[in-house]
Amino acid sequence: MAELSPSRRIRRTPFSARVEVAGVKAYTVYNRMLLPTVFESTEADYHHLKKAVQVWDVACERQVELRGPDASRLMQMLTPRDLRDVAPGRCVYVPIVDETGGMLNDPVAVKLAEDRWWISIADSDLLLWAKGICNGYHLDVLVDEPDVNLLAVQGPKAEDLMERLFGAAVREVKFFRFGEFHFQGRAMNIARSGYSKQGGFEIYAEGADIAMPLWDALFEAGRDLDVRAGCPNLIERIEGGLLSYGNDMTDNNTPHECGLGKLCDTHAAMGCIGRDALLRVAKEGPVQQIRPLEIAGDPVPLCDRAWPLMAGDKRVGQVTSTIWSPDFGVNVAIGMVRMTHWDPGTRLQVETPEGLRDVTVRESFWA
Amino acid sequence: MAELSPSRRIRRTPFSARVEVAGVKAYTVYNRMLLPTVFESTEADYHHLKKAVQVWDVACERQVELRGPDASRLMQMLTPRDLRDVAPGRCVYVPIVDETGGMLNDPVAVKLAEDRWWISIADSDLLLWAKGICNGYHLDVLVDEPDVNLLAVQGPKAEDLMERLFGAAVREVKFFRFGEFHFQGRAMNIARSGYSKQGGFEIYAEGADIAMPLWDALFEAGRDLDVRAGCPNLIERIEGGLLSYGNDMTDNNTPHECGLGKLCDTHAAMGCIGRDALLRVAKEGPVQQIRPLEIAGDPVPLCDRAWPLMAGDKRVGQVTSTIWSPDFGVNVAIGMVRMTHWDPGTRLQVETPEGLRDVTVRESFWA
């Protein structure tokens, strides 16, 4: 692996100083911001995440704030998911599509009030799309990136740790709901969500000045819980089938290809910019779709480009995320497969940088 | 420095395989794509760039293509520079602004025809802004990212090398003009441009399949010219005062603050989205502006966040790019300074991670 050159353009987060002290070994860049990828090692981080609790600097999940009388109208223009029944206090996972139905992002949208949303974005400048649409349609909405920095607390002991800081009420927060809690006199929204299948919370910390005190308090309170600095873990997320925008799908893909067709209420989502394009897909279904895949043999290298998925001489898809799973003893993978070959049990081959490997299409993800 | 974790989301370029063979030591991420930053060392790369010729993989300068009857109208909506007199065959450096006059990008726009532009972008998803505006105003333009990959040939021997591949006519291409040339039977636009002050060209290679043959041919032809793989060099670009979007300016800054006021024909640029906001700035001038700065003493560390610029206890600006210049024997720097303290010769102090340093505002950049 090569080094990452520091510059202001690759933005630090308000937690970066603590992340460095915790011994971060590698980063990726996400929304032009640092996102840690490895502390001890990907495997050691993974084992720890599954049994204890970790604090993740995911400030790179930047917020796009929509505020104003037309905020909910703009939000509905961005997504084919029907948002009419979403009450304030709820989080919704929403595919965002352009006029062709191509995925621009797959954020979690947080409805703060009828006239106010935070969109917690994956890795693409959704801010610019939302601003452009807002301007072009002359909507009465302020579209902005607020000074909100996400800290995730993930792992089986996440509830125990969070209770010590925020009280027992935090245990009552249901999945994909959020509540307002207080820390050092400051209100902050805490949602039961996060980019792992181990359970946990995401704290929407407003104001960079509160970031380090919050980090420090979590580590102070969780010492006996073996709390450690962590980050989204490649093994755990592939086992759990958590998709990664830019890796597993791009603007070339429709939500239906990404297995998000069930989130598309294309008929009802009046105003959605990609609605016309998606109506046909909704009727006929996609011709390729994301599938869990198992790659045979020894651990494969990291997947830094799409690996062709072959049925004999015919290309029938591609692998975009893969890694060796210690717990399952196989290479777990995510790929896009054409409908002719996507049935569970289908045997294919993948062209890895180290040669051809056997692949089996699975029924479901591992976790 | 930490390592950069590979993933498909951080896109490789069609030249990446050659860049690796050439011994790249570090990268940055630019438009979600790999951009090499160091080969031998920043200093060794710099000395070589100033005396020989380098080939740079700058495919990360992605193109936003505007094509269709309203292409020139959309282009004018994006920028306060008056584009009415720009003829096909010309490149123009254009500030791109949002409705508040904030800089969204500072690309080179290439006018291919009356109804067709390529915008060669700095590090922000201008594609999404242009698509959003196009959609909102119902313009008749196709906005897309074509499969065009830029290869820069930079350095005092760039002309000699280019002539060997493209013939003597390439010497006739004037600064910020381009011409159509042929390589292995394929037409490609070649502009006299590039992100250095050493002279050279940028080749707009269309189609990923032509990338490696082009790279190999340049190295084959330039063996006796000591051609090497290179990249935008931090020392050389600061000496030359080449601004970096995301480092020296962000969407918080107007073009006038970036010293680009002379490119803003705000009265004439009818249709420019940020026109109203910029009319006042154009009249009154900015209250802060980018300046060349000299930092006293030994080499300073790399600048990975804004360093406060102080006049006594008062913050009067910030330093955003700096490095030791071997040729000038000082720390060269770029910063934003308030008008009360921006006159050449003004003495200030900067808070570096290693303590306070004396700073002098300079009259002009070094090169």
Could you describe the 3D structure shown?
The structure is a homodimer of 367-residue chains. The first copy, chain A, is α+β, with helices and mostly antiparallel strands and 367 residues long. Chain A has 3 domains: 16-60 and 147-238, Probable tRNA modification gtpase trme, domain 1 (Gyrase A, domain 2); 63-130, Aminomethyltransferase beta-barrel domains (Alpha-Beta Plaits); 287-367, Aminomethyltransferase beta-barrel domains (Elongation Factor Tu (Ef-tu), domain 3, Beta Barrel). The first copy, chain A, has 8 helices and 22 strands. The first copy, chain A, has helices at residues 16-21, 42-51, 71-78, 126-136, 158-166, 211-221, 234-239, 275-284, and strands at residues 3-4, 26-30, 33-38, 54-57, 63-67, 91-93, 96-97, 103-105, 108-113, 116-120, 142-144, 148-154, 178-183, 186-191, 200-206, 228-230, 288-295, 307-311, 314-325, 330-338, 347-352, 355-361. A 6-stranded mixed beta sheet of chain A has the order 13-14-15-12-4-16, with helices on both faces.
Summarize this structure briefly.
Chain A has about 375 residues and is an alpha+beta fold. The first copy, chain A, is built from eight helices and 22 strands. Chains A, B: It is an enzyme of class 2 (transferase).
Map the helices and strands.
The structure is a homodimer of 367-residue chains.
Chain A: E1 3-4, H1 16-21, E2 26-30, E3 33-38, H2 42-51, E4 54-57, E5 63-67, H3 71-78, E6 91-93, E7 96-97, E8 103-105, E9 108-113, E10 116-120, H4 126-136, E11 142-144, E12 148-154, H5 158-166, E13 178-183, E14 186-191, E15 200-206, H6 211-221, E16 228-230, H7 234-239, H8 275-284, E17 288-295, E18 307-311, E19 314-325, E20 330-338, E21 347-352, E22 355-361
Parallel strand pairs in A: 4-16
Antiparallel strand pairs in A: 2-3, 4-12, 5-10, 5-11, 6-9, 7-8, 9-10, 12-15, 13-14, 14-15, 17-20, 17-22, 18-19, 18-21, 19-20, 21-22
